[in-house]
Amino acid sequence: TVTWINMDTVAHTVKSGTPGAPTGMFGSEPLNHMQSFSYTFNTPGTFVYHCGPHPYMMGTIIVE
After folding, report:
1. What is the pLDDT of residue 49?
2. Contact at 8 Å (CB) between 51 and 17?
3. Pairing between β-strand 45-50 and β-strand 36-39 as defined by DSSP bridges
């Protein structure tokens, strides 16, 4: 299980896939300061994610 915590003062989301190719695997509502979102990855793989309002903010989760 991965938990994202918004430490910023502006709202962010966690959306699976890239801005141009979302996967729909997981997605959060807008998270305000100190709010969190968790997702449990049940299969190995490489999973990219991004912030909806800020599509240049991207990350990768690697599950072994």
Report:
1. 98
2. no
3. unpaired
Distance of CA 31 to the CA centre of its chain: 11
Most distant pair of Cα atoms in the chain: their distance = 33
One-letter amino acid for residue 64 of the chain: E
- Residue entry with tokens 């989760």: 61
Count the helix, strand and coil residues of the chain and give each as a percent rounded to the nearest 5.
0, 50, 50
Confidence of residue 3 (pLDDT cuts 50, 70, 90): very high
47 bridge partner residues: 61
Q: Where are the beta strands (DSSP E) in 1-64?
A: 2-5, 15-18, 21-27, 36-39, 45-50, 58-63
